[in-house]
Amino acid sequence: MGKLGSALACLLFAVPFGGVGVFATWAIGSTVHEAWRARDWVRVKATVLEADLRSSGGSDGGTTYQALGSYRYDFAGKQFTGSRLGISQVGGSDNIDDWHHEVSARLADARSAGKPVTVWVNPDNPVESVLDRELRWGEILFLVPFSLAFGGVGVGALVAMVFVLKGKGEGGANEAVNRAIGARGGNTQTVDNASPRFLWVFAFFWNAMSWPIAFLAVPDIVESGEWLGLLVLLFPLVGLGLLWAAVSATWNAFVGRRRGAQALRRAPARSAPGAFAAQAARAMFDPQGKARARGGFGGSDEREPDIPPAVVEIEEGAGVLVLRYSGRRHLGWSIGLFAAGAILTLIGAGMFAAGDTILGALAMIVTGVLLDVGAVALLVGRLTVTVRPGELAVEKKGLFGQRSWSVRREAVGMLKPVVSYSVNDLPYYALFAETADGRVPVGTSLKGEAIARAVARRIARSLGLDPSRIGRPDAPGAGALEREGP
Fold it and tell me: For the chain, which end, N or C, has fewer CB atoms within 10 Å of the first or last residue's CB respectively?
């Protein structure tokens, strides 16, 4: 019964949501098809017989309108009467835009002045005619979220139902949905541990809802002068961020699979006679001959994680290690912050021009400018760390200048990861070399403790620093150290 109940629950979602999606998709497709057919219709003069604008109360408390009318025209020596005013296949009343008002006024003005109007007639079937053969883009955009989002939910529910019916055991709908979207990491799903498939699905739904709503709302907001309403633009901005995250996750997954395949191809060479012993010796002893472990944490058997080039670009050769932390890593964040700042600045400028609250307008403008400055600073920031045996050189460039440090190995008391910020409970670390004169930055925006400590170990090995001088991020005091290895 568990499997049947889960399948029925999926079906309850699939039918209504899928039905709305199918209807909206049909409405869009049939309207576009009618517009395509009407492109070859001929122009004919017609006499207006009736013109009316009917209003009714909308479900949201507003008023909806419907233009009504009829006209008479002659074609090929015969007289015809038509009442089709628009190309849309939906019909009925709405308040999406001013189309009904404009068409009704056009008919009424022509009738009162005794002037003809232009209609479009199908030469192959003169009974078919229409007053306005252009697409109503406002109506199309209004239907897009229902077509994509509602239709997508319906399709997703059907896919989940298939997984439930095919699944073994009583995993239920939640497990089926996780399998359908490729979710990882247990029952919870966050942006940081999401699979590319989940991110693409989530970005699709978010953008399918936010962009059409923004396109419909912004013209009315600008016309009415309600500038705070432009905050609606933040939602498609978030949608762009989700698309960026989906592309990034897809690329990282592709690179990870390629690296895994390369490692498998290299595996036989490492298992050749003598290769394993040499590798084991390198893994167990550092350049100073001291026993150490290659583990991810505190000398465990866990493999030391790879350091992605997207985190830091590493060059090593001739006894010199160079780490470059480029602002390009934050390109997505920089674009998002800059766009958000531009939106707030635009709102503030509009409020100021409209004579609204001056303090509110200035607050919006200042906040927007600060976000834009922060975005530029994030993008142009550079941190370059050069490590030689016994010497550490650091160069930090920012929006407002440059600073450099040169530190001898003896002056480094500890390499210390410090939490800078967190995203969805995943900490991002800065890495510092602690000296008697203060902290010297040697790492920034390192995603997760494993990556932060892997970078610290690379620096310690090249510097010739005892690995016991790598501090725990959660240490109770500055002097708490962790010894790696036995």
Answer: N
Cβ neighbourhood burial of 311 (10 Å; 0-12, 13-18, 19+): buried
Cα dihedral across residues 251, 256, 262, 264: positive or negative = negative
Q: What angle do CA 41, 43, 45 make, to 5 degrees?
A: 140
For residue 281, what are the contacts with CB-CB under 8 A and spacing of at least 6?
none
d(CA 284, CA 290): 8
Whether the full predicted model's pTM is greater than 0.90, yes or no, is: no
Q: What is the pLDDT of residue 201?
A: 77
Give the DSSP per-residue string, 348-398: HHHHHHTT--HHHHHHHHHHHHHHHHHHHHHHH-EEEEEEETTEEEEEEEE
Taken in order of first residue, the domains within the chain and their CATH numbers are 42-132 (no CATH), 291-327+380-482 (2.30.29)
What φ, ψ does residue 241 adopt, rounded to 5°? -65, -40
CA–CA separation, 398 and 395 (whole Å): 10
Residue 33 to residues 28, 44, 91, 339, 369, Cα–Cα distance (Å): 9, 22, 15, 37, 46
The residues pairing with 121 across neighbouring beta strands, listed in sequence order, are 42, 129
Residue 178: beta bridge partners? Answer: none
How many Cβ atoms from other residues are within 10 Å of residue 130's Cβ? 21
Q: Are strands 320-326 and 117-121 parallel, antiparallel or unpaired?
A: unpaired
Task: Report the alpha-carbon distance of residue 74 to residue 392 in Å, rounded.
Answer: 90
Please give the residue that has the higher pLDDT: either 242 or 129.
129
Q: For residue 77, how many other CB atoms are within 10 A of its CB?
A: 5
Q: Residues 1-33: pLDDT tens digits?
A: 456 666 676 677 678 777 888 888 888 899 999
